[in-house]
Write a structure and sequence with these properties.
By secondary structure, this protein is of the alpha+beta class. The chain folds into four domains: 2-168, no CATH class; 175-360, GAF domain (Beta-Lactamase, 2-Layer Sandwich), CATH 3.30.450; 466-620, Histidine kinase-like ATPase, C-terminal domain (Heat Shock Protein 90, 2-Layer Sandwich), CATH 3.30.565.10; 632-774, Response regulator (Rossmann fold). Helix content is 48%, strand content 19%. The chain is built from 23 helices and 23 strands. α8 (172-190) runs parallel beside α13 and α13 runs antiparallel to α14 (430-462). The radius of gyration is 47 Å and the shape is elongated.
Amino acid sequence: MSISQSSSIFKKTVSREVFLQLSELWSQAVKTVGNNTLLITEETLLNLTKNEQNVFSKKQLEIQKFQLLITPYFNALVWGKPNKSNNSYQTTITFEREVIATYLIQLIRQSGDEAAAVEYLQPDFINQLTENVDYSHEFVIKAINLLMNSHNLGDRRHNNGYNNTPVMERPLPYQVEQQHILDRLKIQISQDLSLREIIQTAIEQSRHVLGLDRLLIYQLDVPLKSMNLDSAPSDFVDTITYEAKISEDIASTLYFQDEICLSDFPQCKNKYRQGFSLAINDIETSPNLNSCLQSLMRKLQVRAKLVTPILVKGKVWGLAIAHQCFEPRQWDNQEIEFLRQIADYLAIAIYHNQSYQQLQKQKKLLEKQVKTQAQQIKNALIAAQVASQSKHEFIGSMSHELRTPLTSVIGLSGTLLQWSSSKEHISLPIEKQHQYLQLIQQSGKHLLTLINNILEFSEVESGKHLLNIQQISLAGVAQQALQILKKKAQKKQITLSFELKVTVEQDIFFADEERLKEILFNLITNGIEFTPEQGQVILRIWREKKQVVFQIEDTGIGIAKEEIPLLFEKFKQLEDFRRRTHGGTGLGLALTKQLVELHGGNIEVESVLGNGSVFTVYLPEKTSFKHQTEQQVAIASKFPLRSRTIMLVSENEENATFICQLLTAIGYQVVWLVDSTMAINQIELLKPDTVIIDRDCSEIAVQSIGREIEKQRLSDRISVVLLCHQLTNNDWQYFVDHGVNDYLLKSMNPNQIIDKINASIKNKDESKDWQASNSP
């Protein structure tokens, strides 16, 4: 007898006498079951089919013997296909509404164009079938027991002691209980209960109905964090995560791991992936167990076991393992099938849970992105407000700064015009005329300085300003700046001091002379302006490692600690323009900071309110562009005379333009690609000597390019260089593991960048030469 996946559909080949007994049971049920009971048989349709020409339909109905019973408590359909060779019937009994409805539709089609039969069996009649079935009804139990206790006549091999068709060995209540467990699993999954609750409930109920000593779930690739385990050889382990036992006398296997006896499990995965189930009736006599596994089973109190895979999206998520602990057990097909069904339902629950978790991650990510965007909008609004305030202060500052010299120009020029055109020949001494003209010139120069400062700051900030690096004298530049400001200091009775702490050999420095003068001029001017009379401003210069340090110290009014961050803000002054005592647009220090950073340096401030300030500028060693080019060409000449190709992958136009210009200037051929996918497609074609990857392109892009180079077997000739802002030891180890050979920091000066690229290519060349010399 065979049983379908639904436990209320049964098939078996029985004798003619048994089939007649079943038919009689259906006929008697009309009287015994009660009112509202309807019986339909093949004779019902034969009586409706009176057209003698429709021979085929009548013949089909005569061959197909069936009886359908419809009651308020259940539906019951029995049909049999006769086998004249051994006077038997291939019999099917079902209580399933869907199966009965399908059977009736087939009968309608067999009836051909017989209007009476079609009208009788139309869909309205099918809708009368009962939705819910009472499996405990006396009729249902009698029908199944009658079928169960009959001999199977469907296979002649049965007489020889061999039967390939599974026999129904369990009573109907057992089958109904299995179905109820599956139904409850469906409901739990549809209600989106927690995965842990679904699995634990399923294995506890299944253990009970199967009469097992222990039922457990062996899960693969379990994250250690979810188990709260501190020590383990890897981040993921295979272990038992769920367990149901008949009593506390049974040893617990929860979180059990064994890497020795289960070392061949990866080879078994392929079998389990194909739906293989392992049934061992007795570990003491099973030939499939090696001595290690046999010993392990004894340790875990296992005498018989049944293993079924839990497959999620075609992958083995885990195993459902049934244990009989103290005695052997003959596992039958129905038990194996039931455990498979449990595993299938658990797979659905796990897939739903994984989808839900993925959805939650996406939700959190979206929430984070929304929060980030909201913060960005908030920051943008604040920045807009600050910009508006800065604009207001700038306009107020500029109106004040421009109004004073313009008032002098307009007033004094008006006086001179009036005097020269007066008919009364009012006497204006030559000294007065000279004084007026001098004031007009000074005011004009002041206006020109203000306008130049604004234009220069705009150029530097927009990146249009380039440095003219050349060899200069540190002492010479400092002396020139001090000489220009000497009179201004003397006017305020301020002492200017200069401390040069470099030797004659160290006096040579490469920088933009005009911009360096401007840096010193702005900082010394700032010191003079905010230092009271009889004060002091000191300029110090010394070398420190590979940089030059300029320090300007004053004995002025100092700066409050909370106001220091505002010093280098553009159009920002620490005094309100309506009541300030010091002039200026608020661009001097902002421009100074921009020029220092343009040289690759940085500026620091130390100050105490009322005790003066110290501004310290650090500028790195530089060489002129011409000198750099000559030096790098000399280095490049040491390489074999062939074209050197560098692939640059970066989405940042500013970084890419700088790298391209720098490397092209010393003879490299640079191919700049914005998209990492396009770069992967071009590696095989271009076969570059070096691939420079901007970390801003994402870590996935770095991994993908590294894999492609490895795939093309070009890792021995192509060096991969990472371009980044900063790099920790952990970050570097991660990128090394994904094929990165070296790195460039965006803060490096051009000389360092070129040295890194040359060294990277040279290392690859030396590696190839060594391999060639050592190859057989």
